[in-house]
Amino acid sequence: MEIRICKDSKALGASAAKHVAQVLRERIAEQGYARIVLSTGASQFDTLDALTKETGIKWDCVEMFHLDEYVDLPETHDASFRKYLKERFVKKVAPLKATH
Asked: I need a surface site. Which of 62, 66, 68, 81 has the fewest CB within 10 A?
């Protein structure tokens, strides 16, 4: 296990995003596609922001899954995880291969 200590959430988000971006690039180069699972919450703001700014990722080769959603909550609700991910990630990197 590798442990990284960062000075703040922005630095941690940037570090995590660089690592994820590198893995995505490698998987796409090796197999032509990659899959990613994203979670939501305030703890992910800096990571998702930094990840959407990474270059050289063929987002149309990436299939995205998100972890969960509230039952019967409309996507337009402020607490919707679908809304969160569309606003903070999907719209910034679209088109993705697929989203689930």
From this structure: 68
Instruction: Give the single-character DSSP code of 99.
Output: E
What distance in Å separates the CA atoms of residue 70 and residue 95, rounded to the nearest whole number?
Answer: 25
Handedness of CA 15, 34, 52, 26 (dihedral sign): positive
Q: Identify which of 92, 1, 81, 91 has the alpha carbon closest to the alpha carbon of residue 37.
A: 81
pLDDT category at 41 given cuts 50, 70, 90 is confident
Label residue 67 by pLDDT band (50, 70, 90).
confident
Which residues, including other chains, have CB under 8 Å from residue 53's CB and lie 6 or more apart?
17
31 CB-near residues (< 8 Å, 6+ apart): none
Query: Residue 68: what pLDDT?
Result: 84
90-99 pLDDT tens trace: 999 999 999 9
The neighbouring-strand residues paired with 62 are: 34
